[in-house]
Amino acid sequence: MSLFIKADGCDIEYTVDGSGPSLVVLHGWGCDCSTMRVLIDALAEDHTVYAPSFPGHGASSPIDGIWDIDRYAAVTLAFLNELNLGRVDLVCHSFGARVGLLIASGHPERVRRLLITGGAGIRPKRTLRYYWKVCTYKIGKFFARLFGLDTEKLAKKHGSSDYAILKPNERATFSKIVNRDLSETLPRIQAPTLLLWGKNDTATPLYMAHKMEKEIPDCALVELEGTHFVFLEQAARFNLIAKSFFKEAES
């Protein structure tokens, strides 16, 4: 059952399960607090697991205006404070890793251990085809506005599936977030970090995990057969590794 709490002016939907040391699960873009339920149930055997839905996701408040990743991190910290959660373990998937990287690097006293799977935040390698697509979209958008044409059709044609379904302010937020490179946060992360990555992840390719492994001081990478949602595809193995990683912190 979902609960709600006010954090930094937002109504945040969340779930809480289990008992033990506090652990917080941060979901990916377009998902919500239920997405990682299989992992949450496993971790709840040894932890009190909190899983919030980010603003604009699930039943949490929609975002007002254009947000950046710092705003999401601020709301997440406010969520932790409202629940009186001091030092926590963090599990982050995809977009959630962007928030996790900012919190772990900027507030190291709040993160005991950090697990990232399919984590976003590293600037992707771009092809000439990508830059051509962006260029033609911007030119098309300019002329569409000039002649009073429908820019929505253009956005749906040229944008990703995630981008196409968003409202205008959400699109601007999405663009602002995905274009932010968080590589500079990596050397400042003090928490022991485990990367659990799908070998065939195309959303956040394996080279991003290799960069994180290289630049986060205390970090290990485990590659599993699977894609961006390897925590669902390899649930039993993923859960076993994750539980062992967090269990080490208590021994």
Q: How is the topology of this model organized?
A:
Blueprint: E1 3-7, E2 10-18, E3 22-26, H1 37-43, E4 48-52, H2 69-82, E5 88-93, H3 95-106, E6 111-117, H4 128-146, H5 151-158, H6 161-164, H7 168-178, E7 193-198, H8 206-215, E8 219-224, H9 230-233, H10 235-248
Helix pairs in contact: 1-10, 2-3, 4-5
3D structure, described in words:
This protein is α/β, with parallel strands linked by helices and 251 residues long. It folds into two domains: 3-123 and 181-248, Rossmann fold, CATH 3.40.50.1820; 129-173, no CATH class. Helix content is 41%, strand content 20%. The protein has helices at residues 37-43, 69-82, 95-106, 128-146, 151-158, 161-164, 168-178, 206-215, 230-233, 235-248; strands at 3-7, 10-18, 22-26, 48-52, 88-93, 111-117, 193-198, 219-224. An eight-stranded mixed sheet has the order 1-2-4-3-5-6-7-8, sandwiched between helices. Helix 4 (128-146) runs antiparallel to helix 5 (151-158). The chain is globular, with a radius of gyration of 19 Å. Mean pLDDT is 88; it is low at 130-144.
Q: Name the CATH architecture of the largest domain.
A: 3-Layer(aba) Sandwich
Strand order of the largest sheet: 1-2-4-3-5-6-7-8
The structural class is alpha/beta
CATH topology of the largest domain: Rossmann fold
Q: Structurally, how many domains make up the residues?
A: 2
Tell me the number of strands. 8
Helix content: 40-55%
C-alpha Rg, in Å? 19 Å
How many helical stretches? 10
